[in-house]
Predict the 3D structure of the following.
Amino acid sequence: MDIVLIEKSILVVIIFAISLGIAAYSTYFERKFAGFFQDRVGPNNAGPFGILQPLADGAKLFTKEEFIPTNANTFLFILGPSLAMLTACMTSAVIPWGGTLEVAGRTISLQVADLSVGILYVFGVVSLGVYGIMIGGWSSNNKYSLLGAIRAASQNISYEIAMGLSIIALLMVASDGTLSISNIVNFQINNYWLIVYQPLGFLIFMICSFAETNRTPFDLPECEAELVGGYHTEYSSMKLGLYLFAEYVNMFISSAVMATLYFGGYDVPFLADFEASLGHNLVTILGTLFFFGKIMLFIFFFMWVRWTIPRFRYDQLMKLGWQVLIPLSIINIVLTGLVLTFVK
Amino acid sequence: MQSLSGRKKNVVNKKMTIGEKLYLPAIIGGMFVTLKHFFGKSKTVKYPEVKRNFSENYRGLHVLKKDDTGAERCTACGLCALSCPAEAITMTAAERTKEDKGLYREEKYAAVYEINMLRCIFCGLCEEACPKQAIFLTSEEIAPANYDRGDFIFGKDKLVEKQHHPVGKIRGGGPYSKEHYHQHGKNKSIF
């Protein structure tokens, strides 16, 4: 029992460090890629190719003046960014980062917790994330912050429905009766990846992920042109940094969720055939590396979309959520049901 | 009305087709437009390290020229100050002494010559007015920045050229022209 705890603790620390590291370097690559997309160079002065830019940004944010407005609710004002960061980091616990490692006769799973309610847990934690934004926006005592927070809340609620409905269709195909994420990956290892069975579901899920992470074209909560800074207008120093950072952690996690649910997770086609020659551990590590490769591609996609598509108007955003995506995901469920009943 | 430029487009309020209403084809098209730029060449000139060449008729800061022997050409006639539409130039004339014979070309010279760079509009009229080919707007210095308004009044210490350059080749082949940069490899060319 104790040795399991130690293993899991090490795994938690590693995953935590990796997700923070990737989030930090996402900020660098976001700026770099933004430059490339706009025929510019991007940050290039801090270190070779500007590679130390995230550290410089971090040092800047830490040393800036900590400012809390007089009429703000101090406790909630501090709670807001903490909650946003906490919920962003919590989701990674149920994602299977790889197969199993065999060390000293023990089999170690590269998943922190294989909950039978895995997907439900992801949804629960992700919807908690909106509280960070709500509390921060409300406690700032500023109309722009409040408007940004209200937008974030209504947007997240609207898109979570379509997201959940698209997952139902996925579970109809892949589930063995539980919501465990490792079972969904196992299904994809034994069959095709779920993108083959659920292309429409993936499209809906991906659009909703963009909305859930408040990324362009759904970044209305922090829409500068209308709302100054949105929910973080009044924030400065590292509290602002945490909000911005949480967005990148969220982006990393939702990329991981998309790769897990629709693109086979750590599954690499035909890699299992080499298990005899390469050894079990090496195959597992290769699978994990490929999984991170898939995640990187999704992060690149997030950035690519951000520097291509302009922001939605608010009524269009709501129309897309309620009048297009929700009916579409219901149609997807019905179609999946029909196919499962009559084709199988 | 007839379009003379041939670029006129009539606005039509037609209904979108189903394909257009989906927006996805348009979005994918847009994504490939940005992807093309992603792999395209950056147009940035990395300024402090790389400098652009000035165009041949670029009007930079003023330079007070010297002649072939290294004597100042300016005779303080004041035509530049008269021609200046911005009232930026002022000077005080003085008579050359025997000891200073090599320093000034003619008997009269400018003891004080000041240009207020905050007033100057870089029109180049002083250059045109000068009968002695003494002032040219050819300095390679760009973007003067100061904390003090007084520092924008440039005196002879900043205006008189440090090294002697032949006056005959000032335009097109002069010290600050494109050819000069290419020959001396002072800057990387982006053209």
